[in-house]
Amino acid sequence: MVSRVQWRDGSRVDGTRTLAGECPVAIVANGSTLAVMLATPADLADFAIGFLVTEGVVDSAAAAGEVEIIAYPSGIEARLWLDDDRATLLADRRRAMIGPTGCGLCGIESLDAASRAPRQVTGSGPRPTPGEIVAAMAGLSAAQPLGQATRAVHGAALWRRGAPLIVREDVGRHNALDKLAGAVVRAGIDTSNAMLLLTSRVSLEMVQKAAMLGVTVVVAVSAPTRLAVDTATAAGLTLVAVARADGFEVFSHPDRIAWDG
Predict the structure, then answer these.
(1) Neighbours of 10 (CB within 10 A)
(2) Cystine design at 149: which of 18, 94, 186, 247 (Cβ 3.0–4.6 Å)?
(3) What are the φ/ψ torsions at residue 145 (nearest 5 degrees)?
(4) What is the pTM of this model?
(5) Which residues are within 8 A (CB) of 50 and not within 5 positions of it... i.e. 6 or more apart?
């Protein structure tokens, strides 16, 4: 909470505002720093595990093991210990990322790593109707307490038949999705019949992460990039974007939408 002066309708009002927190968070595996990102300091165990899941290093919470959260004056470390095979994979895919809202590719060491083939998504999925998609996006705001308080964070939600299963928030859109992925695998939730809702634009890496999470339908409030659409098409992922109160646009695999529902 910070003090602020507000000017509205020609009048000055002194008051306070709740702001979103952010600090440097280092994900440290086997004693080596994998990534350093500015993140909202909440749900950091979910964040660390979700990051490893969406990067293809582990496929379960058990494979990641326990997460130790250590706070320093300069930031926070989320420490994990992986077995030798996964540690080797991690070394091969090492990156150093700084920044909460960038492209998500900073520090990748080759173009091949940036454009890696997405995980293939199969199954019919939740088969949402147009009305369910619009209602889900309309209800997402109410499921974001930090977003309502600050108007400064992104949200990622796993949504099934009219209700959120899990919602995570962060100042970074990639971070919010990684936190959601970590929460999902830690809880052992089946994602095949749920939609992934995003309050951000859809970039290449957001599609790659969604495919790793195993969802079949992604719905986002903003537009996708061309590369995101091409990647979603190749992955077999249904990509719905520009989702607003008056409708949405489907950019790949529209057969999963129950148009007559």
Answers:
(1) 5
(2) 18
(3) -60, -40
(4) 0.84
(5) 177, 178, 179, 180, 181, 182, 183, 184, 185
Question: Residue 224 has what DSSP assignment?
Answer: B
Amino acid identity for residue 106 in this structure:
C
Hunting for tokens 């977003």 — which residue is that? 147
DSSP, collapsed to helix, strand or coil, labels residue 205 as helix
H-helix or E-strand containing 36? strand 32-39
Q: Are 173 and 200 in contact (CB under 8 A)?
A: yes
List the pLDDT tens digit at each of the 261 positions of the chain: 678 777 777 777 788 888 788 899 999 888 888 888 889 999 999 999 999 999 888 989 998 989 999 999 889 999 999 887 787 777 666 643 334 444 444 444 444 555 567 899 999 999 999 999 999 999 999 999 999 999 999 999 999 988 999 999 999 999 999 999 999 999 999 999 999 999 998 988 899 999 999 999 999 999 998 888 999 999 999 999 999 998 999 999 999 999 986
**CA nearest neighbour of 177 among 26, 53, 22, 13:** 53
Specify the residue for token string 């990622």. 156
Candidates 2, 29, 260, 17; CA nearest to 131 is 260
Residue 135 in 3-state DSSP?
A: helix
Residue 210 φ/ψ region, left for φ over 0, alpha for ψ in the -120 to 50 degree band, beta for the rest:
alpha
Q: Find how far residue 62's CA is from the centre of its chain.
A: 21
Give the Cα separation of 110 and 219 in Å (integer): 29
Are 230 and 210 a contacting pair, CB within 8 Å? no
Q: Which residues are catalytic?
A: 103
Q: Which two tokens stand for residue 113?
A: 């790593």
